[in-house]
Amino acid sequence: MKMKGKIAGILALGFLIISCESDDNSVDLPKGAYDNGILITNEGAFSGGTGTINYISDDYSTMESEVYKKVNNEDLGTIVQSIGFNDDEAYIIANVSNKISIVNRNTFEKLGEITTGLNNPRYFAVSNGKGYVSNWGDTADENDDYIAIINLSSFAIEGTIPVVLGPEKLLGKNNVLYVAHSGAYGTNNKVSVINTITNELSNTIEVGDVPNSMQIEDGYLWVLASGKPSFTKDETGGVLSKINTRDYSDIVNYTFGATEHPGSLGLDDDEFYYGLGGNIYKMDIEDTELPTAAYIESISYYNMTIHDDKMYVTDAKDYASNGSISIYDLETKQLEQTFDVGLIPGGVYFN
Amino acid sequence: MMNKKYLFSALCFFTVLFSFAQKKDSVVVLDEVILTDAKLSQFSVGNKKQVLTDSVLSKTNSFTDLLRYNSTIYFKENGYGMVSSPSFRGTNAQQTAVIWNGININSQLNGQTDFNTIVTSNYNNVTVKSGGGSVQYGSGAIGGSIHLNNSFNFKEHLDNELRIGYGSFDTQSTNYKLSLGSKKLSLNLGLNYNSSNNDYKYLGTDQKNENGAYENGNVDLSLGYLISDNNILKLYQNTYLGSRDFSGTLLANSNENYKNTNVRTMLEWSNFNDKKISRLKVAHLYERYKYYANKDRPEYAFGYANSYLFNYDYKYTFSNVVLNAIIDNNYTDVIGRNIEESNRNITSVSILMQHKLTNKLKYSFNVRKDYTSDFSSPFLFVFSGAYNISKLYNVTLSASKNYRIPTFNDTYWVGAGNKDLVPETSKQVEVGNYFNLKNVRFNVIGYYTKLSEMIQWRPIAGEGWIPVNVKDVTQYGAEAEAAVTKHLGQSKLVWLTNYAYTKSIDDSNDKQLMYVPLHKITSNLAFSYKKAEAYIQLLRNDLVYTTTDNSSELPGYTVANLGMSYDVVKTAKNTTSLGLRINNLFNKEYQNTAFRPMPNRNIMVQLTTKF
After folding, report:
1. Chain A closest CA to B599's CA: distance in Å?
2. What is the pTM of this model?
């Protein structure tokens, strides 16, 4: 017995030493089965069903589907719209189910959920130590849209900030939250600026119609708006707006053709990338004109994400079968790998 | 040149037929005129027709249940009592036509009939006709057609029937039927009211069907008047009003509500003698819906359509040949929140012919051509034949071309409607084998269908979701039906079984279409002894795929219902019976649409009195 106790003690000490050592070099060790890889959200069927999440390791050697269900043995909900992150925590938003599931982003173990206070939730961002979720509210009511404020330790909704129609993408920076208003089922052309110390609206910036993506770099907020689509019978062209974040007064607009509808503004090494008419365009941050020639031709996508010299392009196919993701090298423009993922892959995130 | 040659041949042919013309018994003609849809049997001799009458109709509470448990049709239901879409021979809901007293009543807006918005208890029979029948029944008669028929009884009589049911989930059903007649007059009136909280348990969870309550009222009237020995006037009326809260799913709650109204009126005048029947029909069909995405708010989406039908039909009988020419005009206008104010006019000309070559061999050949205001329609035909090899064995053959036209939603939806759509067309052949023994009836039908230009809503870059003629589908399979009837003293046994094997393959990826089971079996056994009856309904459904690449599926299931009834009063003037029905006897957890569970075990008691 004593002997065993000693051995156990030595072993325990050994583990302690090993774990101390590994802590020192922890940058290289995975923090969970889903670290060092890509997460893909699949919306799932709108008519009733569940969204799912795929994991692909950075070296492309492993691909797992339905990782949330695998770990937690439950479904995420209908239309998994997006994931937002707060350090190691992932906030997974199920739009139709009005639900946010919170997991550890590396292990996917569930930490909690938010099922009240949400109404058509869309995106999540963190600013000034609080979480913010854009909500369309009732889609029949154009005046009930809001941003929900989430306590990041209790996962409780602490308050709401009413905003104009159709808050969609969020961008949190220091004590400021930018809200792009794409307009929900209608259209809108605003970016709300929220002071996250007071949780009050500090500014409203007018941008192009239907702003779909934002980037912030060197004190400038860049907003890409797609313009109103032709079926609205009031078609407008896209606009890329460069906005000085000091006072939001100095706005430079780069306008596209009246029937051009760009989307998915990405930024990598001071180069912008966006999609337009089945091609990918590239524009240097210093450029003063929109590019005229495509950078990569013939790429149609459901979602396009730029990250670390790579372009991730999802294909939703017929929206009723499993989609795929293709990964391109931005430098060589070569297709590196294609994976089959879940139903309507809409978001790509990086662990 | 060719046309002239054909015309000449046709003239010769008809001249020969005329010379065979003989006198026909006028009583037979009257019987035929009284029948609502005599053409159903006369001009489609090569198609399978399954007739469901009162003994079957009274055993179910809804049109969906009736066909789910008695036919080969698969139903996709968004929760019990919610929108119910059929798949007949591997087709979709828009490729199955519902025919009310001979006219097509599929919605002008979305092209399909929601089978939970039809009350069947007042019809004298419901006939399920497998296979294409667009020549006679128009758009959507591709997989098959379901016929709701009223009939007339010109005999002195006065019959009343009251049926009251109550069951689980506060389900209530009240039905009254009146039938009265004289030598000149026939009147049938049916009144129905159904309601239910429908808040059944989602088995295997702690959830309930929270938002699934429904309520509907329905009136059917059919009135026949014999003006003279050669003239009859008929009036048909059906009004349906329904309100349903639309169920959520396992993963998302709902607060939706849907209200719809259908009003159908038809006046028909027939002039007839022993050789000819000339018939004029005018009809008005009205449909309206209001959809509340959130029933606590005042906003709703809506659509309504008015159709005006004019139909003239002339039929002449020679000795062995029946010829029928029909000219039909259908004008429809629609208004809706999301639909352009629009109208459509369709004029069609059809010629139907049945030729009895010998006592054993007959065939029919029907053709139709439509002239439509906003798209072009194909030339349609049906050839079908039946041969009595012996008293015990018949064979049939049918070949046809059928269509499904773009709906108003497809063509005129604001911002999405596609005016370049062409009708879906379907070419099909089928062969049937029918065996009739003393107590046993058995048939096996094999079919092959090629569907082209299928219309589906697809996301098109820059245009959003729009309908497009997108794919071709190959369907083939077999249907088998066996009926055993056995009388033994005062007891009677009836055993009906249907089986369908269905392949419905998307030509672009060789996969089975979504929500088409490979196998479906229904089997109903009823046993009666003196005043008591007991029956069991069994349904076995194979798995269905829920994605077009067959990457996910719903498991197959077997569900059983048990019913019994007893005549507590049985006199010449009054029959009163008490019935009990247990649905989902084995409390089976199952879904026919993904994430939308069907009810747990539930019961219904019923009192029926006829006087």
Report:
1. 17
2. 0.89
